[in-house]
Each structure stands twice: as C-alpha cells, then as structure tokens.
Amino acid sequence: MSAGRLRVELAPSVWLAVVLAALHAAAAFSLVMVLPGLPGLLAAALLLALGVATVRSRALLRSAASVRAIELVGPKLEVELASGERFCAELDERRYVSRLLVLLPLRSPVRRTILISNDMAGGDSFRRLRIWALWGKLPV
What we know:
PH-domain like; alpha+beta; seven-stranded antiparallel beta sheet; 3 helices; elongated
C-alpha cells in the first residue's frame, strides 16, 4: 500500500444495525403515540419497513447497491458496490468525521451519503480514512 493510495474493504456492522433499528423503532413508537388508530399503525409499519431496508443496505451491506469498498487515490474516491459496479465519485465539501463514524456525501454521479463506522474498516484503515476525510491527503 503506497502513501497515495488506500483501499478500504467494508464489513457489515452489527452495532450500526442495532442503532439504526432502535432509532427507527423509537420513531415508529413516537408516531403511534402522536397519531392514534389505524393511520398511526400503518405509518409506523411503513417506518419500520424503511428501517429494515436501511439496516439491510447501510449496516449489513446485503443490498446490491451497498458500498463494499472505497479506494482513495490522492483526492479522488472510487466506489465499489456489492453488485460489482465501480465508479469514480465526486465528494461534497461537507463531511462528518468522528472517532466512531465517517460520513462521505457524494455529489456525482449519484447523490448519496456513504456511512462508514469504525468496525466496518480495520483500525489503521479507518484512521487513515479519517485523516483523508479531514485533510484530503493520506498520511505517509
């Protein structure tokens, strides 16, 4: 691995799946409390279904559109999906970087946000990814 290139293979994240499921369940419960009766139950069921789809795609990486790997080449970002499709992506200016998560909003060719938790990538790869997301350069 050279200083100007980093490939990060992503693994499923159980703790991210639990957090996303819990947040969707809490939102569904809140919706039932605010909107009683059949409309509230139907809306809550739809919210729970959305939670299942989100957990499957973003945390467990089981969807064909799930990001399975990213490759950093200087300031460029290449994305590999579970379907095998690869594309170069342009990042938005705003990014969120913390000890636990890195959020990379893509501007083109598709508008979506890649969420990478610290257990989805190896320790050194995640550290290097955080530095790249903050400064636009990989550490030597």
